Amino acid sequence: MNNGNRKGLNIAICGLGTVGGGTLALLQKNAEELRLRLGAELKVTRIATRTLHPEKLSGIENLSNDPLDAVNDESIDVVIETIGGVDPALEVIRQALVNGKHIVTANKALIAEYGNELFQLAQANNVTLAFESSVAGGIPIIKALREGLAANKIDWLAGIINGTGNFIMSEMTSKKRKFDEVLIEAQELGYAEADPTFDVEGIDAAHKLTIMGSIAFGIPLQFNKTYTEGISQITPEDISYADELGYCIKHLGIARRSEKGVEMRVHPTLLSKSRLLANSNGVGNAILVHGNAVGATLYNGPGAGAEATASAVVADLVDLCRHIQSGAASPVYPPLGYREMPSGVSVVDIEDINAEYYLRIPAMDRVGVMARISSILQAHNISIEAVIQKEAISETVPIIILTHSAEERQLNKAIDAIEALEDIAGKINRIRVEPFHGEAA
């Protein structure tokens, strides 16, 4: 594609749902502001959407329900992919890249699972695949990691990166409500889908963490190695016990550099109530990034929604237009931030991580049960930091234990051994603790 002699861009939007519709509206609403910033016009000339409403799309020259019509249109410079999911979005992006068209996408699943292939295809065809809007909506976290913090060696990042899960945990915490009850409300408010699995089981957050972790640590995208655990097993009792110990429970995505490699994990997490992330409530997102030069920086804002996500889509368009205006022969930055990725850096298996843990153990109200539990933990090199032993509930008593740092493999063996005791009345609930020892967070 040769558009170096033209200042503006002809744009096709594929998918006119929440994000696509919000992008079109924002481009129209801020058209003059964008023209002044660029000295050029960002013009949507084609839209592909499953349901056509020509009366609502006045001024658009070409409408179609087939996205490949847009991809194969020689006049189009940039394809905005807001279809979502894999099919047909993957085919659309592949064909657009082969046709020499730039891509702007909000599709986190596609980037996390197929990004390695797609970035190579973009490079082979000397075009840009931009994806700021795929993570954390309107928060410019991709630019922050890839460009703003480029001078740093990133130590870790931790984020609340799914608004649905954060809303549910916030409501459970503030109003002592059960998960199922709050989920129904989230669906009624439009925060959760009819099938909420991607949100509440952590898949959506894992897609986002995979992308951020790759940029932060210079590793290939490896969604299949990102440990994923949801919030559906969290109870009001866990929240109450955590509060008594000085913690709250948040659904976090954590990526951390360690001696063993890079940890990539999404799971419920106990956080001290004094930490910054502990005070991020509702449907917003918040991400802490710790660099070895700058220390901890916080990025907070709307993680979803039409206008917030459209803001990130259009920001990528502005960057792309400026790049083309400069006459540069190739994309100005590598998509994942590294021209050469570090060698020998692997993703750590969840059983190899070291963490502190919260355990809720349903024990029979018998003499010596605590001693037997302690003996098993000691045999697996797990030391106890704090214990709460509540009054008996019928014949059982909940024992709450906070451990010091231990290897997860050893903890799993200890849990199996404790659950095998005749004194134990059910499954042990385990939640990891993120203390940020010695780190401003």
Describe the protein in words.
This is Homoserine dehydrogenase. GO terms for molecular function: homoserine dehydrogenase activity; NADP binding. Keywords: Amino-acid biosynthesis, Methionine biosynthesis, NADP, Oxidoreductase, Threonine biosynthesis. It holds the Pfam family Homoserine_dh. It catalyses: L-homoserine + NAD(+) = L-aspartate 4-semialdehyde + NADH + H(+). This protein is α/β, with parallel strands linked by helices and 441 residues long. It has three domains: 151 residues, Rossmann fold; 161 residues, 2-Layer Sandwich (Dihydrodipicolinate Reductase, domain 2); 82 residues, Alpha-Beta Plaits. The strands form two sheets. Strands 7, 8, 9, 10, 11, 12, 13, 14, 15, 16 and 17 form an eleven-stranded mixed beta sheet that branches. Strands 3-2-1-4-5-6 form a six-stranded parallel beta sheet, with helices on both faces. Helix 1 crosses helix 12 and helix 5 packs parallel to helix 10. The protein is elongated. The two termini are 46 Å apart.
